Amino acid sequence: MSKTAVVILNYNGRSFLERFLPVVLAATANDAEVIIADNASTDDSFAFMQTHFPGVRVIQNPNNGGFSTGYNQALRQIEADYYVLLNSDIEVTPGWVKPVIDLMESDQNIAACQPKILSYHQKTHFEYAGAGGGFIDKYGYPFCRGRLFQTLEEDKGQYNDTIEVFWASGACMFVRAELYHAAGGLDDTFFAHMEEIDICWRLKNQGYKIMYCPQSVVYHVGGGTLPKISSRKTYLNFRNNLSLLYKNLPADLLPYIIISRLFLDGIASFKFLFEGGVADFFAVMRAHLHFYRKLPYLRKKRKEQLPKMVTQIYSRNIVMDYFVKKHRHFTDLHKEYFT
């Protein structure tokens, strides 16, 4: 059994494998086993792996179940102490695995961790998906150190501290294998987007910590599966956000937050409409209809999770702080509001 398994989920990503896999193998050889989990790709990814990387283990999933199911199917077949969920469009750096594993080994209460995630196309700046560690506000809106909405900060060392965060990015997430399986893995119904926030919240509900380790650095292309602007992405984000709130919020906050989100999402949908985003407007509507249909499943999951108050939640509305108060950087947010 390998202590650490770096698992790259691939779907029609032959070009990413060709570009980034050699770097991953070179930078990881002494620290982890690298495994490709293929989500029933229809391009020549599998043939490419057989020809150019015959020594790399490839797990062929029977279908494309998205990010969540794809990883769940693959990780059930991998024995390791730690999993590293790594996007295929990430360039790693030498020695990127060891600092994170060392941090997690130092504290058995750490369930998951992410490295510093910078942009592949602008390596001086943070990347959207994870940046310097993820947080969430009281209404469920996620954001990161180094990234508030579309504002991406330049990395000047301002987030070089090892800290506890709310969620670790699924683009490059280290997680204890035992805890991953004990928590039930990623939620299959999410398909893609916010599934990492959901599992991190579930792990926090069980008393574990999520960490950020800046001594490890990776560069992320982003938008490798869905374009950054996509009505499909809008649908998944709104749908899954409501689901993770319902599943994980403590009982005394649930009614107020869900009702508030119905109102806030209504404003967002009409903003899309007025800006010409008709498809995004209907995406929000469909997301809410799916949420209502899914309530029996979500109630069952709530009973399994036993939600409670957890730390690292921003007690204000990040949307108002960003768009109205013009707080464009994480350092503009007051520390006392992180409960």
Give me a quick take on this structure.
The chain is of the alpha/beta class and 339 residues long. Helices cover 38% and strands 22% of the residues.
Write a structural description.
The protein has two domains: 2-220, Spore Coat Polysaccharide Biosynthesis Protein SpsA, Chain A (Alpha-Beta Complex), CATH 3.90.550.10; 231-307, no CATH class. The chain is globular and about 55 Å long. The protein contains eleven helices and 14 strands. It has helices at 14-28, 45-52, 66-75, 98-105, 177-182, 195-205, 231-248, 254-274, 278-293, 295-305, 318-323; strands spanning 2-10, 33-38, 57-60, 80-87, 90-92, 110-119, 134-137, 142-144, 147-148, 151-152, 163-165, 172-176, 209-220, 313-314. With 339 residues, it is an alpha/beta fold. The longest helix has 21 residues, at 254-274. The mean pLDDT is 95.
Number of strands: 14
Q: Uncertain runs with pLDDT below 50, 5 residues or more? A: none
Counting structural domains, the number is: 2
CATH class of the largest domain: Alpha Beta
- Identify the overall geometry: globular
Order of helices and strands: EHEHEHEEHEEEEEEEHHEHHHHEH
Task: Enumerate how many helices there are, as a single number.
Answer: 11
Tell me the distance between the termini. 39 Å
Class by SSE composition? alpha/beta
The CATH superfamily title of the largest domain: Spore Coat Polysaccharide Biosynthesis Protein SpsA, Chain A
CATH architect. name of the largest domain: Alpha-Beta Complex
